[in-house]
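Justification of resources, computational component.

The compute hours requested in this renewal are based largely on the per-chain cost of generating structure records like the one below. Each record pairs the submitted sequence with a full structure-token output. That output is archived, and it is also reused by downstream analysis tasks.
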Amino acid sequence: MKRLIFATNNKHKVQEVRAALQGHVEVVSLAEAGLAGEIPETADTLQGNALQKAQWVWERTHTDCFADDTGLEVEALGGAPGVYSARYAGEHCSFDDNINKLLAALNGKTNRKADFRTVICLIENNKPRYFEGRVDGQILTERHGAEGFGYDPIFMPDRFAVSFAEMPLEVKNSISHRGLAVAKLKEYLEAK
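The structure output for this chain reads:
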């Protein structure tokens, strides 16, 4: 089975991706790979951040690896928070801080259209390859559900009547931005 280091310290992401790639790829977290330190995220695009994070791992291990970057893009906010989604409310903010800031920014707005995009950068033999997933939806006016993480309690994907945080993980993985990007990664790895 192929072994890939996943350039993240986010245990929720590791859990989602392991579930999606189970039986096909051994996903190794940064901690399990013995890597510590702050991974840079200074690019102004999702693709740039994914590449930067994957390169950080490659430079230290020369082991095949991948990284992702995800952005929530809200139409009424001109695409914000976008590439700054994880730190929308400031450095070292919590998921709740980000949600509170977003809900406040949308207070009174009727256009609540948004999309979630994930870009994965896979580095094999120092060569990058990209996989993207996108899901359209709406920002809810309040939190719903206790599953997932990040903006999941306030994001309701199109054609569904529940938030990501109200879905079982296997359902979310089958339709989410990260799930779609990981499915493309899985398809690529299986075809090799």
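The longest strand covers residues 127-139. The mean pLDDT is 94.
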